[in-house]
Amino acid sequence: MIACAFPPTGGAGVQRTMKFAKYLVREGWRPIVFAADYVPQLPLDDTLLADLPSELEHHTLNTWDPTRRIERFFSPVKARLADQSFLVSKVDGLEWRLGRFAQWILSRGIPDGQVFWAIRGYRRLRGMLDKRNAEAIYSTFSPASNHLLAWMLKRSTGLPWVADFRDLWTDDCRYVGRWWLRRRVDRRLEDVFLRDADVVIATSDEQRDILAARRPEEAHKFHTITNGVDFEDFDRLGADTPDVQSRPNEKFTLTYVGQFRESQITHECFEGIRRFLDHSAEHRRRFEFRVVGQVSARLRLRISEMGLPLTSTGYVSHDEALRQMLRADLLLLSSLTGVNASAVIPGKAFEYFASGKPVLLIGEEGSSIGRLLAQLRGGICAPRDPDAVAFALARLWRAWQAGEMPGECDRSQLTPYGREALTRRLRLLLDWAVDGHTAYGRTECGKPLKGPESGWARCAEADSAVEVMT
Length: 470
Fold this sequence. Notes:
This protein is α/β, with parallel strands linked by helices. Helix content is 48%, strand content 12%.
């Protein structure tokens, strides 16, 4: 399993692969995880390690981080100049400029800044695969260097490769501002990955269809495994802190969990909250907007200028993030905007639903997340209109005052989105990929057999088989 970001690296992006690794062990596979020891700009969360099985084999390789090297270079210089504050400030300025320049260069690596980690990792993994008698390769996007490393190993070993796209790449609504040549190179790399991967996984049916349209002749190898929720996390929290949900809030608490980005929370949402607060003095007195995650200085200033009562915690551990969900009165979720944005289902949505707290979705009812919200009856959806957002908040405010907030999702409805059930789907795809690989030999790439005895013919049955099992 190739995942540059893996515990103890924290953040929302590590949850999917981490839970796959955890439950694949229970499904009879023996995952070997290859990750980076440190990923720049991502937090550390040592608490995640406690959730990994002892049988899991975990290898790391250090990343090339120029800012750390520059910091080590200038440290002795600043130590010698400690009593000369003017010179120290000049050195600090030079260090900052060099660091920013190095990051700018690294961010333009192809396919991304982790390309050096991937190239060095190939030499290390190539021999390990033969020694461990590996049967398949799994990689997750992003970063794209995970897929690059998996592709190099696929070409040299012929092992079946499962490419998991947690997000779209060049078709993603957030893929903007790239130079035309860079877009062309990225698109070509993505085409190669989609061609040579034996199984391609997307996190929504809409995203799967977008990827499959790039290889219509091989549509059978594109599958959907959504993100999900590990019920054991909530059961453990309930056992450790049984009163976490029983303490009522003095204020109507609207909580957003995750990194707070301007691309996710639009002006209409902020304006809708402001109009709700301006409706009455009691609204403003008994309302709290809580962000459990990092908020940029620019966004914090914007919220302050609008007079919104923001409380932010900064980055917290995953368990603490779940506790904050349980303590909220209402959870805020906003769908993305732009090309193919409707295909995105935020990973946090499933934990939102499992928390039992109603969700206020700002976005379109017809999007993938909008349809999921309606299916699970997990809350209400408000279009991106300030008045609609204010009306939705007023409606939920009245329900909160009366003690009649919308009920929680039925866990039986969430069972298919449990991490255990989703990993069972991945295990089936891995089994069928290995069977198909055995049928047509190690040296063939991307040319599955079509006959009834081929593992690929049975691979298409994986989705329906999982539905029966769950």
